[in-house]
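Researcher: Watch the backbone:
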Amino acid sequence: MKILITGASGLVGKQLIPSLLDLGYDLVIISRTSNKRLPGINNIFSWQQLQSFPEEIIKDVDIIIHLAGASIAQGRWTKARKRKIINSRVQTAQLLFDAVTTSNINLKLYISASAVGYYPYSNTHLFTEDDKMGTGFLSDVCNMWELSATNFKNKETRTVVMRLGSILSKDGGMLKPIIKAINLGLGAKMGNGKQYIPWVSINDVVRFVLFAIENKSIDGTYNVVAPQIIDNKTLILSLKKALHKKSLIPFIPKILIKLLFGKKSELLLKGQKVSSQKIISNRFTFIYPNLNIALEHLL
C-alpha cells in the first residue's frame, strides 16, 4: 500500500514515518524542496513538482496524510504570518486535491491534521466533535483546514480529521520551552493557571494515525486528546516534580505574557476542556492517558 505524506519534517511526521516504514508501507513525501533526504525513502518531491507532474507522482497512492502547516506558535501573528499559516494548510490541501482529480486515482483514505483550536475558549464547557466552532483566528484556521478535507470525501474515500491537542514530545512542541524555563528556575503557572490544556502524547498521535489506517470504521472528525483533563497549573507542577526543580517565581503575570506575545498570548492564557470519548468509543486505547505516565516516558 502506498501512502503520500506532507509535513514529514514536522513533529508528527518525524515520528510517524519510521512506524509506517516498519509496517512495510511504500511512502511518497511532498516537501517544500525535493532535496530533502530521509532514511528509507526514495520518493521525495516538491510541491512545484506535484503541480507539474501530478500523475507521475501520485500514481498508485492509496492514502494521503496531510500534516503540512507553518507553526502557529512561532513568530508574532502579523498579517503576513497569518497568511502563511493559512496557506500552508489550505492551499496545499487544494494542490493535493487537484493532483488526485487530475490523476483520477482511487484514493482510499485522506487523513488531515487540525486542532482543538477549532473550539471556543471556555473553562466550563466540555467540547465534543459536535460542538460549533469558535471565533477568532485559530478557529478560522481550523475551520478552513477542515473544509479543505471535505473535498476528498466520497463513497470510495474515507476522510479522517484529527483535532489535535497540544502534543507532548521531547523533540519539540510546547514541552521544550517550558522545560527550558523550569531548568532556569522560571517555570511557573501562566496567569492564574486555571486555563485548561487539552494534551496528547506524540506516541498516541502516531498510534491513532495507524489505527485510522487499519480500521475502516474510522471516518469523520475526532478529538485526539488524552482522557485526563488538566490545567496550566497542573502541567507546570507535574513538570517541576518530574524534573526535580523549583521555581524562583510563583506565577507569570498576564500583562507580561500579553506584552511579550501580543495576540498570540491567547495560546498561553486561554484554553478549553475537550472530550476524547468518541475515539475511546471507537475502541482506540491510549497508552498514555495520564499526564504523569506520559511525562515519565518522555523525560
In short: The domain at 2-298 is CATH 3.40.50.720 (Rossmann fold). The radius of gyration is 19 Å. The chain has twelve helices and 14 strands. The mean pLDDT is 94.
